[in-house]
Amino acid sequence: MNQNIKKFDSVIIASFLLFIALDVFVWFQVVFGKPPSEPRMYFLDIGQGDAELAVLPGGIKILTDAGPDKKILQEMEKIPALSNHYIDIGIISHPQLDHFNGFQYLLDKYQVGAFIFNGRADDPNVKEWPALVEKIKNAHIPFITLAGGDALRYGDSRVDFLSPNSDFIQSAELNDTGFVELLKGRGLKVLLTADTGFNIEQYLIQHLDVAADILKVGHHGSRFSSSDEFLKKVNPKIAVIEVGARNRYGHPTKEALGRLASSTSAKVFRTDENGTVTAILENGKLKIFTEK
Length: 292
What we know:
By secondary structure, this protein is α/β, with parallel strands linked by helices. Helices cover 26% and strands 26% of the residues.
């Protein structure tokens, strides 16, 4: 790990975790209008990449990943809860361009209370990563390293980090290091799986409860993610694939789509076909809205 990052983390980690323990990890918030009383999720259409915004009861905003470029800005401008241009927590699932680089542009327009990442920053092929780290530090934004077993809490909502464990974080395959998050809020459970594949899925179903109402499909619908056994354990009502139109990887693959169809009864949405997908829990009922 970059030593500058380690030093920066150590300065603020204790105070940040204290805020979490007190259920007040947001130390700066500007409220415009009445905050939502029910959780909602936005799976943003940012092309070939990931970006998921959770707006928790009370108006707490957590953005996991921000896609590869500045398209994140135009998508976020459409969301009323972001009219104050403030995000409580930014989470970087792992340091690959299609997951983190949009934060470079977002920081020019938005204030962020704190960033969370997995501690891995040693891929020489990702030259944009040091620039983002420097931008976060120059803005004096806390930059926290978390791992599987950690959690964030706010009121009756929480984000559990299910992976990576101490073995996966050392993997030569960066996709193995990605955060798997289980968001829970007032009856809604959402599983975010970054770019994780079969090996991480097998670990999860052997050691943890992964059942969720909504599944963010792993690795944009790669043929190496979304195993039959994993999908049956998650048993989602809704599956969302974040993917760019006519991408060069062939995502989502016919294999992943086939397993989603055979192993779940989930309604499948794709950002390349449906645009941004919004999920809102209202009076105990899950409602889905799409742009297209």
